[in-house]
Amino acid sequence: MTGGWRRLGRLALDTRAAPWAATHAALPMTEPDGPDSWRVYVSLRDADGRARIGRTRLRLKPHPALDPLDAEPVLDLGALGTFDDSGVTSSCLVADGTRRLLFYTGWSRGVTVPFYLAAGLAIGENDGPFRRLSAAPFLERTTADPLLTASPFVLRDSDRWRMWYVSATEWRATAGGPRHAYHVRYAESPDGLTWDRRGEVALDYTAPGEHAFSRPCVVRDNDRWRMWFAVRGDRYVIRAADSEDGRTWRRTDTAGLDPGPEAWECEMVAYPWIFDGHGARYMLYNGNDYGRTGVGLAVWEPDARS
Known about the structure:
Layout: E1 4-11, E2 23-32, E3 37-45, E4 51-59, E5 65-66, E6 87-96, E7 99-109, E8 115-125, E9 131-132, E10 149-157, E11 160-174, E12 177-189, E13 196-203, E14 212-213, E15 217-220, E16 225-232, E17 236-243, E18 250-251, E19 270-277, E20 280-286, H1 288-291, E21 295-301
Antiparallel strand pairs: 1-21, 2-3, 3-4, 4-5, 6-7, 7-8, 8-9, 10-11, 11-12, 12-13, 14-16, 15-16, 16-17, 17-18, 19-20, 20-21
């Protein structure tokens, strides 16, 4: 896959109808909403830093633009004491007949470490509201994933479901406090609800200082599987990988994206989401401070220069 991403700019998002959305618009993901628009789900924080999942719409014509944010979140905080009482962040959305499965990450505050993460699932029927499958995470901590699970990306593949997700390998004590390390693992399921997790690593650390991967975004093209993700050492950058079977991956970082020249994305870029439309491939992504500066859009071009 040769070429590069051409930046189309930052997309303004009007949040005035949603007083709960004080800052950020992180981890964008799309859902088709007709021939010329997509529902876009983003994670927005309140004044206390707790994220909820909200929804807007993206239209590419006559020029790329987002509709105002819906007044109510599509997924709110969990009940006090549950795994997601301090935040819910978007991960992926899968259509299965009349059901829509919203996979997300639940946040709770830690004591010995700053936070705990666990992957949750909410289900909507016939385009109705999303309701949690359970007050508990669907990816609990196990011997395969003893520290945390987060950021699942799920695809249906014939008679099986495939998932790439984040799992921690350690919390390390540093002079600045505990520092996490997590990479991307792989699991399968017969129904999208119960998963066979064996600790299989899909993407591991390769460069000195790498210690965190963001939500992966996986696309199955005719010739191979492709994955985009963000990885950080000192800062997040967007990188890519490809695979013949969806399990063994080869990093192809030239298909990624580095921080850009504009102020809103000059420090970091992260949380890529890939979708196709109007005969082109697009990427939604975030810039500085984990989405505080908003959502950007780029288009893949064979001879692009970002």
